[in-house]
Specification:
Elements (H helix, E strand, L loop, with lengths): L1 H22 L19 E4 L14 E12 L5 E5 L10 E2 L2 E2 L5 E4 L2 E6 L5 E2 L13 E10 L13 E5 L1
Amino acid sequence: MLQHSKLVRGALLAAMILTVGAGVGYGAPSGSQTVSVAVNSAVSITVPATAAIAGTDPGTCGTTSSTITVRANRAWNLQIRSDPVNNPAGQAMNGTTPMVNVFQYNGGGVASYTNITSTYASLYGVNQARTTGVGTSVAMNYQQCVDWMDNPGTYTITVDYLGI
C-alpha cells in the first residue's frame, strides 16, 4: 500500500511539474491586425408619392402639406424645384395648359410662400447637422392660387427634391 501511495504522489508531482513547465518560456503563436472600415458619406430622403390640394375657387389659394424625411451621416441640405421638362415655368399643368399663377412652397428654412422654379433652390440657408437613424422630418407646405382665367379641371405639377 505504501508503494502504491508513493507511486500516486510521484505521478501527481510529475503532472504538476509538466503543467507548470508548459507555461514557462513557451507561448502559443499570436498576432494582431488592424482592420479599417471606410464609411461612405450618405444623404437619403423619403418623399411621399403624392399630395393634393382640394377643389379651389377662382380668386382664392388652396394649400396642402407634406413631410419629407431626411437621413444623413454628414451635414446636409434639402433642395426643391419643379420638373424642368414638364413644369419648366413652375406652373401646374392640365395637359399642355398651364395655370396662370406659379406654384408656391414654404418649409424647412423658407418661412414665406415662394414661387417654385425649375432650378434647385436650398430650403436652408446653412447646412443642417447630421441626423439619427430615424432621420429628420421636414414639413413642407404647398400653395396654388387659382385665377379666374384658369379653366376648370385637374392640374398637376411634379416637385423634385434633392438631398445634398
